[in-house]
Every structure is written in structure tokens, then in C-alpha cells.
Here is the input.
Amino acid sequence: MGENGCNVFPTAKVCKFCAGERLDDVVALLKRKGYEVSVEGCLGLCAKYDCGNINVIAGGKEISAPDIEELGAHLGATGMG
Here is the structure.
């Protein structure tokens, strides 16, 4: 069940290029945090944030993190998970 007992889950989009070898770990983390995840091509975030970061749009918010641990911390700060 999603928020308020409905079957709607917050969504997250992952840039497969930015996630690179970490893609499976990023998707798993987002799913554990309660997001419905889609893997996309370029989200355009690499032009805005540091090269090599993990870039996602989760719950409508842009998140850019240098590693999986910081991504988890950002996701915790969004009120999910």
C-alpha cells in the first residue's frame, strides 16, 4: 500500500548513465525506500550537477549524490523510507 492506504506509490526515475555500475544498487535502494522505479536514459541532471554523481528524480525532487550512502541519506530527508 502507498500513502494513506491507497495503491499509489511515489515514483523515482534513475538515469542509467549516471548510475552506471551502481544501477542495480540504486534501484534496490529506491524500492526499499518505497518508490516505484523506472530506469531512464538521460534525465538532463548531469548538466546541472557534478559529473559522476548518481542522479535521480524521486517524488518529484531532483537528487544528486556522489555515492549510494549519501543517496540514502537524501532519500531519508525527503520523508520517505
